[in-house]
Specification:
Largest sheet: none
Number of strands: 0
Oligomer: single chain
Order of helices and strands: HHHHHHHHHHHH
Strand content: under 5%
Structural class: mainly alpha
Number of helices: 12
Radius of gyration: 19 Å
Shape: globular
Distance between the termini: 48 Å
Length: 276
Amino acid sequence: MLSAMISTSNATDQIELAPLKDLDEWEDDILQRYPEPGTIAKAKATEEYRNYEENVKDSVREFYRLNHTYQTYDFVVEKKKEFLKFDKKEMPVWDAYEFLNQLVDDSDPDTDLDQLQHLLQTSEAIRADGHPDWMVMAGLLHDMGKVLCLFGEPQWAVVGDTFPVGCAYSDKIVYPEFFKLNPDFTDERYNTKYGVYSPNCGLDNVHLSWGHDEYVYNMVKDYLPEPALYMLRYHSFYAQHREGAYDHLMSEHDHQMFKWVKLGLESLQLSTFRLH
């Protein structure tokens, strides 16, 4: 009986660490929620494409339940302390891509590109569109933060739509109903419009949910121009760059820089559609 209980507990722990078959399930979900405009049939309204929930996978729904339950203000602060020391592993950039390639799921028949091939083809598509070299570099680096999975982080702390913690959650975030499971939802310090922040304080003063965006931003922040850094840091912040849900925290400078975020996201999505 005890061994059966331990086995069940281990299976539950594994599901909470990795509810998705692979990280591509999250990215496929993003493409379904926010399709590139040129792919939308003229006979259908954009809103019809965004009403995707009837076909969403149970694994994706479970992923967001875990993400919204456990991404608290304190969790994010602790993860920054833990990982932004960059003391886990040191290697040249090409070795880092080989390290990242360990994330390939050979059992997935729909995925025939490893991580390096995906990043190379994405950056090449951006280059072919005539964008500046720094944007090509951002395309090459944008998923590098997913090495967090190889340091033992659960999927819900590596990928997923990012959102501010420390203030009220917007109903524009995917699956907002799951935030009721988050202890910050009822914490008076964090559940008001501004929470621990002040009006238009600027995103550099705001903690977003922890994941690969923040990790790769901090990894390269001393080496790339500011527009590239905004693209890397906020490319998963869909509640803002697609929904405008957090204008009240954005500074005027943020708004100017988000023009680059949107341009970069369009380039990434276009390259993804071409590769598919």
